[in-house]
């Protein structure tokens, strides 16, 4: 997909309200661009922002950001926020996004994989930047974890692991949107986890 390509169809699977659930290849491809991933992350962080404010965060021109914002709007990821004087901010259209592919649709799988690769690259770069930054105080240094492990599991067992990982922060609800729920001394944290089968390893044969 080129930087300027638009979705080939209207994102009919975009659900109104707080969640976006879609496996539509066109909707996935619309986000599969490094700058669009970054722009959407900025909007998730700030809740709303103008093209100029976003440009300052991502190091791009406002006009370039405006182009990509319009593509994200067409795909259903963002929308216009109420105007602030002469400023015309944008905001995310959903609080949560489930962009898992349709396993029976090769185009959906390819599009989801391309988008996922961009998120992995972005998060890996963020972790590297953090590790190369000024050291934290001891109480925060002790919580930084880099954990690698290998194991043998069936698809059902891996699915159970994926569900468990997704629920790791479920006991901390509401703190992102409501500052009053954040305990004194708390800071924003990031959880970056990957789970995948080894493509080089054949399945264990039936007994």
UniProtKB/TrEMBL annotation:
An annotated Gene Ontology molecular function: DNA-binding transcription factor activity
InterPro entries given in the database record: ArsR-like_HTH, HTH_ArsR_DNA-bd_dom, Metal_resp_trans_reg, WH-like_DNA-bd_sf, WH_DNA-bd_sf
The entry's keywords: DNA-binding, Transcription, Transcription regulation
Region (Disordered): 1-20, 172-207
SMART domains reported in the protein's UniProt record: HTH_ARSR (SM00418)
Record carries keyword Transcription: yes
Residue span(s) of domain HTH arsR-type: 26-115
Protein name (Swiss-Prot/TrEMBL): Helix-turn-helix domain-containing protein
Organism: Agrococcus jejuensis
């Amino acid at each position: 997909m080129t930087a300027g390509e638009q979705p080939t169809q209207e994102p009919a699977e975009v659900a109104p309200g707080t969640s976006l659930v879609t496996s539509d290849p066109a909707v996935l491809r619309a986000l599969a661009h490094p700058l669009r991933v970054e722009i959407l992350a900025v909007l998730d962080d700030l809740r709303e922002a103008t093209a100029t404010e976003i440009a300052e965060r991502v190091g791009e021109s406002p006009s370039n950001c405006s182009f990509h914002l319009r593509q994200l709007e067409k795909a259903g990821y963002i929308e216009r926020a109420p105007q602030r004087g002469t400023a015309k901010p944008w905001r995310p259209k959903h609080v949560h996004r489930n962009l898992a592919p349709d396993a029976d649709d090769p185009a959906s799988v390819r599009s989801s994989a391309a988008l996922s690769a961009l998120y992995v690259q972005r998060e890996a770069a963020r972790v590297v930047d953090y590790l190369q930054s000024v050291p934290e105080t001891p109480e925060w240094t002790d919580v930084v974890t880099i954990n690698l492990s290998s194991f043998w599991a069936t698809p059902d067992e891996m699915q159970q692991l994926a569900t468990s990982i997704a629920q790791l922060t479920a006991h901390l609800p509401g703190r992102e949107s409501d500052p009053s729920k954040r305990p004194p001394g708390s800071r924003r944290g990031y959880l970056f986890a990957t789970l995948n089968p080894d493509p080089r390893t054949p399945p264990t044969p039936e007994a």
